[in-house]
Design a protein that fits this description.
Elements lengths: L2 E7 L6 H7 L5 E7 L6 H5 L5 E6 L7 H14 L5 E4 L4 E4 L7 H8 L3 E10 L13 H4 L2 E3 L11 E7 L4 E3 L6 E3 L2 E3 L6 H6 L10 E8 L2 H10 L7 H6 L10 H10 L11 H7 L36 H12 L11 H26 L3 H20 L3 H13 L4 H14 L3 H14 L4 H13 L3 H14 L5 H14 L5 H12 L3 E5 L15 E5 L19 E3 L3 H7 L2 H5 L4 E6 L5 H12 L2 E10 L25 H8 L4 E5 L6 E5 L7 H4 L1 H8 L8 H7 L5 H9 L1
Parallel strand pairs: 1-2, 1-4, 2-3, 6-12, 13-14, 13-16, 14-15, 16-17
Antiparallel strand pairs: 4-8, 5-12, 6-7, 6-8, 9-10, 10-11, 17-19, 18-19
Helix pairs in contact: 7-9, 11-12, 12-13, 12-14, 13-14, 14-15, 15-16, 15-17, 16-17, 17-18, 17-19, 18-19
């Protein structure tokens, strides 16, 4: 059974983590996002894989008639689902009375329309602070038990319907028109509703919570700034959503105080009470008490959700960031999302280092070293954007955990190396080698430092020494690849070239396929809407870098799935992209697919960059990885494009470590590659990479540095 959900949002960063966690079991959540939204709503929502965002703008702020029309239009477009849920951001549906999911309840009862009895929920005087990581029904359980009250009864709403029905919701979703009958709870025709297969009996309807006043500061902001101040002239004239028209802060505070001692209306079973440490209090006599459904216990999908829910989230995050950031003036450089994500990533890196320390103490040094290397490379980035204190704490954690002077010197040298203090790093490694000359990791580090210092003969001597001392190790071969790169491709690495493209083009939109740890994605400038696509790394809790000028929009999908499910024009908010970077699977046919898909959205000045188009040796260009240093066979795309698309302009920059191709003069109407895809792949997979690097430069269309500089500039 496929269940989809429709909701319309404006500035919902407070409710978003609770709503999206609660409905994580829904197959697809359609958020019709008011394009005037100016808080963190979109960023939070995009961390959830079942969310689809569709932009919308009122002609005159919030208009209930237009809103209802948008809901009904959207409902009619959903053809692949079995059921559709329609709720606002503060409405949470669950089951009663058994501990079962909404999905299983629907599968068993198979009604065409389900009403949901949404209790008016308030913060109780004994309630703990809200936590997005806990199930919603446990967050706030106290409310108004009188569901026959004229206001409350409006919140017994027709919230779930079968897809494909001739249904039209009314204003506020309190009623609907179905088979020429107006269906609403407060004047229900029970027999007619039963005949139309609509839930009427207590064991058929669903239950839930309308979070009316669960946090004082958030409610004041929501009702006054986000609702009262955004009512359309039509709403004001017609008296629609009248509850917002004259509300004041004093009125909200009074309502808050008047309801601090409401009874429990949402009960949970002893199992969940024990599991979450929930205690019961007085229950209103005769109140219906739904129990917690299992699906409501789904964990929050992203670890970057806000933890402070008091007051304006923007200001609270800003205050926290400024208190914790030693540079003191990051508010002028980075937005709130960036600081928030950065702090979380740094905490994760610290935990990663602690785990590496444990592995090292257990004698699993090789496993620990890979993690250390990743962390130290990232720390330079955060040090440069102002997190000096946090970086220093992580570095001290590593150094203070070492039990021998040679390892202390090694890690000190490794940190200096990643901070690009190569001479100091060389001094530290040489000192360690005086203590233990036969330690492989020190010998390898010496060779890498010599390369970075430009002492290529010294690096070669170090590699020869490694081969003599450790003939069974592949370490010397891997360092020799790095040395060969430095010899054949001197100059800037591909990150530097990417940075130049961003600075030169100042793209309004940037699309990256294949994210790694996020380092290249973080190069996007302040004027750029960045989009990242990666099925494995497309979550902020898996990336190590954050765009300093504002987080990118991430899609945890394969590139094939992304282009099948999304229209890139809607994602970037314009008809064509400005800059794209292909760095996904290291396979020719996938790079070609990505190129074809991207070119469909190209404009006259669009640029596509392709990584790994100039392998340093045939062995690193094998389709199956057999070396640490690996590019795959992406290089084949260059002769392919030259042959089949002579209309394109192609240059490959010898940017270390594996080249960067630049493709311009794109044509979105071209079908040549798509129409001949299978034949192209079959032919070019039989093509062999030349042994000579000079020949590889020719087949990969490498230009001179002067040509390339002129090409990039123009």
């Amino acid at each position: 059974m496929i269940i989809e959900l429709i909701t319309m949002w404006y500035n919902e960063e407070f409710m978003a983590p609770f709503f999206l966690s609660h409905y994580s079991w829904v197959d697809k959540i359609h958020i019709i996002l008011d394009s005037d939204t100016n808080d963190n709503t979109e960023f939070i929502a995009r961390q959830y894989p079942n969310v689809v965002i569709e932009y919308f703008q009122f002609t005159d702020m919030m208009d209930d008639v237009i809103k209802a029309n948008e809901f009904n239009k959207k409902y009619r477009t959903i053809t692949n689902a079995d059921y559709v849920i329609l709720v606002d951001s503060d409405e949470f549906i669950f089951c009663n009375p058994l501990e079962k999911s909404v999905r299983s309840h629907i599968e068993e009862t198979q009604k065409d329309i389900y009403f949901a009895n949404l209790w008016q929920i308030y913060k109780h005087k004994d309630d703990a602070p809200l936590d997005p990581k806990l199930p919603v029904p446990l967050q706030r359980r106290h409310g108004d038990p009188d569901m026959d009250d004229p206001t409350n009864i409006l919140y017994v709403k027709p919230a779930i319907v079968k897809a494909g029905k001739d249904i039209c919701w009314g204003l506020g979703n309190h009623e609907l028109l179905y088979e020429k009958s107006l269906i609403k709870w407060h004047n229900r025709d029970v027999e007619n509703m039963k005949a139309k297969n609509i839930s009427v009996d207590e064991n058929e309807i669903l239950y839930g919570a309308h979070w009316k006043l669960v946090d004082l500061d958030a409610t004041i902001k929501r009702r006054i700034i986000d609702r009262k101040q955004r009512q359309s002239k039509f709403n004001l004239t017609a008296g629609l959503t009248f509850q917002y028209h004259h509300v004041t802060e004093d009125m909200i505070i009074k309502e808050y105080k008047d309801n601090l001692d409401r009874p429990i209306v949402i009960m949970v079973s002893p199992y969940f009470s024990k599991l979450y440490g929930v205690t019961e209090s007085a229950v209103s006599p005769g109140s219906v008490t739904p129990t917690l459904q299992a699906e409501s216990c789904s964990p929050v999908t992203a670890n970057i959700l806000p933890t402070s829910q008091k007051g304006s989230l923007v200001s609270s995050r800003l205050d926290k960031a400024l208190q914790e950031t030693p540079s003191g003036d990051l508010s002028q450089q980075y937005d709130n999302n960036t600081r928030f994500i950065s702090s979380n990533i740094l905490e994760r890196l610290k935990a990663q280092v602690r785990q590496s320390v444990i592995l090292q103490k257990e004698g699993k040094l090789d496993a620990a070293l890979g993690e250390y290397e990743l962390v130290f490379e990232v720390l330079r980035f955060y040090e440069e954007i102002g997190y000096v204190q946090e970086v220093g704490e992580i570095q001290r954690l590593v150094l203070e955990s070492q039990s021998s002077p040679e390892m202390t010197l090694y890690f000190h040298g490794l940190m200096l190396y990643h901070r690009r203090h190569y001479s100091s790093a060389a001094d530290a490694i040489d000192a360690a080698l005086l203590l233990v000359p036969g330690l492989l990791l020190l010998q390898v580090m010496r060779a890498k430092v010599r390369i970075s210092l430009g002492d290529l003969s010294g690096a070669l001597a170090a590699c020869e020494n490694i081969q003599q001392l450790f003939p069974q190790s592949n370490a010397a071969r891997e360092v020799l690849f790095v040395l060969a790169v430095e010899q054949e491709m001197p100059g800037e690495d591909y990150y530097s070239w990417l940075q130049r493209f961003h600075e030169q083009l100042r793209p309004a939109s940037y699309v990256e396929i294949g994210l790694g740890h996020g380092r290249s994605l973080a190069l996007a400038g302040p004027e750029t809407k960045a989009v990242g696509i990666d099925p494995y790394q497309g979550f902020w809790d898996r990336l190590n870098y954050v765009c300093p000028h504002g987080p990118a929009t991430l899609f945890p999908l394969t590139s094939d799935d992304f282009f099948a499910q999304h229209d890139l024009r809607e994602v970037i908010g314009k008809d064509t992209f400005d800059l794209a970077f292909i760095d996904g699977l290291h396979l020719f046919e996938q790079a070609l697919k990505d190129f074809i898909n991207l070119e469909r959205y190209a404009g006259e000045k669009s640029v596509i960059l392709i990584h790994d188009c100039l392998p340093i040796a045939p062995v690193v260009a094998e389709r199956e990885r057999c070396t640490g240093f690996w590019t795959g066979d992406v290089w084949r795309i260059i002769p392919c494009l030259k042959a089949f698309r002579p209309d394109l302009t192609i240059k490959t920059i010898p940017a270390k470590p594996s080249g960067l191709a630049v493709v311009t003069n794109l044509n979105p109407a071209s079908q040549t590659l798509a129409d001949n895809f299978d034949d192209i792949v079959a032919y070019y997979r039989s093509l062999h990479l030349p042994e000579s690097f000079a020949e590889r430069r020719i087949i990969c269309n490498v230009g001179t540095i002067n040509d390339i500089n002129s090409f990039v500039t123009n």
